[in-house]
Fold Exodeoxyribonuclease 7 small subunit.
Amino acid sequence: MTSNNITENKSNLTFEEIIAELEKITMQLEQGTMPLNQAVETYTSGIELKNIAEQQLKNAYIKLQSVQESREISQFRERFANLLGSFQEEVIKSLDKKSTIDNAKEMTSKFLENLIGLYELYIKSIN
């Protein structure tokens, strides 16, 4: 790929192509045989490529972070649904057994403790 093609198509390059081009630019500049104007243009092109590569890395990081957060949210929802389902089953059983208010309070307290524990785990996992 020539320098003119690189200049025209920088935003269409893959990360790997940008790295390869930056390596070429580095070697050309290290040789020290370019006229000053061409060296400045080449250096400027390299900076532009570096900026594009950095943006691609940032975008990849954001995408990976989003996937990770989505997975963690799904796990939290699943655990919450299981916890809520268990609580509902206990409430129904207690109604059938005609449990006391104290039993109901204890069940609710246990549910809330488990819910808080689940929430704390979720918060730790996203930080």
